[in-house]
Amino acid sequence: MQWLAVLGALASAASVLAEQHAFQLDEAPPTTLTRPDQTLTGRFLHITDMHIDMHYKEDSAVVSQCHHNKPYSKHGGKWRAGYWGSSVSDCDAPHRLPNATMQWIAEQWAPASDPTEASSTRRNPFDFILWTGDSARHDQDPEIERTSEEIQQLNRDAVAMFAYHFPGVPLVPNFGNNDIVAHNTMMAGPSKEIEEFARIWEDHIPKDQRPTFLRGGFYAKDLIPNKLGVISLNTLYFYDSNKAVDGCPRRRRKDEDADVDIGTLELEWLTDRLIEFRRRNMQVHIIGHVPPTAGNYYKRCFDVYTELVLRFQDTILAQHFGHMNLDAFFVQESSIVNDRASKGKKGQILYKMIEQDLRYDYESLPGNARTDMDYYSVFYEAPSMVPTYLPSFRVWTYNISMEHSNRPFVVMSDDDASLLREYVSYDLCDDDDLSEECVWEGDDDFAILKKDRRHRRPKRKHRRRHAKLPRYASPSAPSRTNTHLSLLGYSQWVMDLDRANAQYENTLRKYGKEAAANLTIEFDLEYATYEAHVLWHPFLDELEQKNPDLTPPVHHHSPEEHHIPVPKHLLSHVLDTVQLDSPFQCNKQACKFAKPLKAFSNYALEDMTLRSVMDLARRLVLEPKLWKSYVHRLYCNSLKN
């Protein structure tokens, strides 16, 4: 394949300077790796948890992690590994799966050519790609040692795939807990491991961010110059399974940077980056691998991170994570409002703990009229490409139809910025303050083990000192009101692995190995968050032309309001799947959307602003059928039976 040539080029690419760099929080504003003149599509791609396995062996025993022929019949040996992967299993992904996936995405989402554009102008399918880590296989086969060289090569392979299939599209890479040789365990840099990733991701990390990256594996950059930025966190320093860190304890004022936990340093750096982006009148996406739940993060890492993102609500557009292989969204709530929130009704106790936690969170939300939106946010957990359930990816759309005018509702003073830094570093405490709020937790005071991993919002103790902190929230911010850069929605795509493997086996049996090897894969639309008239808009004008006297379903008429979240040919494939010629069912007077299509847009959100998503959370626990659909989607609809 041609992309293999790219692998060789990347493997021999010049390395970054390996010299030691001082870690400085007052670095220059992040630069951009995006062309200023790039034509925006209003779409971006999120891919996570590829878990590429170069040892994956077709027709091996699934119970051997798809590595070995034995066992054959006993002890589960009858279940054999498929050509494209093995769904709902502990096996990782064969090398061919992510490559074929990216090929399908690039071909299916390629924008139509514009005859007025120069032939040398290439239009990209996406404005940027979020890649939230875990590209290497799990370390679960005692017979095949997982080495740092293998892990790094798999990340080089992934970079080469992105470069080949999406040339020129800005890529935002991120560390996963399986991208390091000591599973879950990562110490602060500089280290040979981080330095090697600086080489692997060299084209995607701005040069002015290299010192920070070499220190901790996190960085920030512009995606749309002076409009939209991204912060790529190293969430392993917050993750409570990483025993090489101390859990973000606050500094003592006598401490030098070298004596401070790397998680605390990263939170300080995050604060400065949010301040910087806000002062530049920009919006920002935050990405990471391990999502910020109480069950995943050390307590102070969780508390400070959550409080920070809530207090920069007018600057943060969205937060995107992977790791859990699930499709879900989580509500974040300020500690100030937590104590006065309603306890919620007793809900159905579900077998899966994550379902129970999500339902508890959604039920405990106050009613719409009683909700102070300044104290809430959400983050998104995306399902994985590795077939823990089914291979999946997500395509987001966002508003590019309005002029950039995201000026802060409240101007940040230097005193306010200093107060936020004081909170993150010191909890607003002096070293000799022995009050309950200022008890210092050192290394020996942290509980190393948790009894369980509950991901529901904890009842955090209200701290009076937090009331001093500035809060930057505005109803007119893009996270709260549909305006320039606001998220409009996403479409979720899944691959039917069993069908693809069966097609391969059938072709192999009838036509031989060469014909089978030339097969391509396809993904199906699992669902979309949009309203039906938005999702199926490409067919509405066609309906009006054929039936001018009929009343079509309600939709926008002005061309500038036409939002096409999914290309028409992919929607036509959906119609073929449900055996329909048209998305509409018409009588003599009017048309309505066909009933078999309702499940594809049953969330029916106008946009992905905060109130819309919180309203969806309330609907989920009030409508049993919708909740059932949501639970199935948690696992990519792989566990329906």
TrEMBL record:
Residues 454-469 have a biased composition (Basic residues). It comes from the Eukaryota. Pfam families: Metallophos (PF00149). Residues 43-310 form the Calcineurin-like phosphoesterase domain. GO terms for molecular function: endopolyphosphatase activity; exopolyphosphatase activity; phosphoric diester hydrolase activity. CDD domains: MPP_ASMase (cd00842). The keyword Transmembrane does not apply. InterPro entries: ASMase/PPN1_MPP, Calcineurin-like_PHP, Metallo-depent_PP-like. This is Ppn1-vacuolar endopolyphosphatase.
